[in-house]
């Protein structure tokens, strides 16, 4: 077993690591679009919508824009994606747009996630260190039946990963030194930033997060403390 | 059943409502004091320590002092209580004082709490709206096996109940309007403040929170939406 004896909190990235955002968002928008007679590739729509996520957060990270929670960015990006896809956003009421935006609170967990996190929870505190906001994580977790001990991450720090303050503030908010925490993610850039702050790092392989032709994050960087094929393997490795 | 159909989040006061702070703190300090040959009434010590809690928070509420989390106040109050009790605080290392202060993260739940909250969680989001800070709630809940969906309250608002912003910010952080939330507490003043903000209110009778001679909060104010003898009865009333 890797040396995790001082680790008290496992902090999880959520979108892509714990839940399948692409398939879930595609199913959610497909249902709404179909009911309105809008013909679109829902997987492409999900990917296009998601492609605006990093640039939108980057404006907050650089200080160009002050902190706003992720649902605000997602709603703005939804309107851009609708326009880009040739859909007149005025077809939807404000409530209709909000309902579409709630796609991000209706994401299915990967098949291993729920049971493995319950196992890990016996030995560690388990929390989210996501760019999602508290309300988004709360309702997503109720939907997906994910049983966190604590919701940390972007809203705790009022900034977005991979800014170091998100990792540091999350540890501090849990009453821990950064060395007592580990980051669990399917994304090497997130883990690199967490490692730079002093966290242990766990890479989870999610080779279809971005669809069948995914080319990124197929393997862990060498620096990761643990690399696993899913969270069940992580529970095994950590003897939970 | 009372009209709770719009309520999505039950926000719980914790100290006294969900856990027995007096008995637990007394047992914790008694063990430490006994090991050091210090002879004290541990129940009186617990009550004396707790008696400094409201005045310490009041300085933050009034703005005389800027926000500090509850463990900071508890540690300051511990030193005062030791002095008041005739114990030389320099007998303890900084670590020893911190260990004593951790009494507040080692509180036993009332016998009905854990199972009832698990039942309520099936139908509602359940969260803390406590004056405890996030780390304190996290580790207390791990210790007591309380399974919250979210930790809200004082640290979310950077102020202390019964200041209205604690209730409002907790609802907002959960993505809800205040009318979609209910406060569950054993203290009428907490419930009165929550009601003033627009929350539904649930009084839970904890007649020995302050010991066998308790004279306060033995009955609910008439304005409470629900009054129950314990949380199991609340789960019954709300048909969970």
UniProtKB/TrEMBL annotation, chains A, B:
**What InterPro entries would the database entry show?**
2-HAD, HAD-like_sf, HAD-SF_hydro_IA, HAD_sf, PGP-like_dom2, S-2-haloacid_dehalogenase
Substrates-to-products reaction catalysed:
an (S)-2-haloacid + H2O = a (2R)-2-hydroxycarboxylate + a halide anion + H(+)
Q: Which UniProt keywords apply?
A: Hydrolase
UniProt GO molecular function? (S)-2-haloacid dehalogenase activity
> Matching SUPFAM superfamilies, A to Z?
HAD-like
EC numbers listed for it are 3.8.1.2
Q: Which domain of life is it from?
A: Bacteria
According to its UniProt entry, the function of this protein is described as: Catalyzes the hydrolytic dehalogenation of small (S)-2-haloalkanoic acids to yield the corresponding (R)-2-hydroxyalkanoic acids.
Matches recorded under NCBIfam families: HAD-SF-IA-v2, HAD_type_II
The record's similarity note reads: Belongs to the HAD-like hydrolase superfamily. S-2-haloalkanoic acid dehalogenase family.
Protein name, entry field: (S)-2-haloacid dehalogenase
Q: Which organism is it from?
A: Rhizobium leucaenae
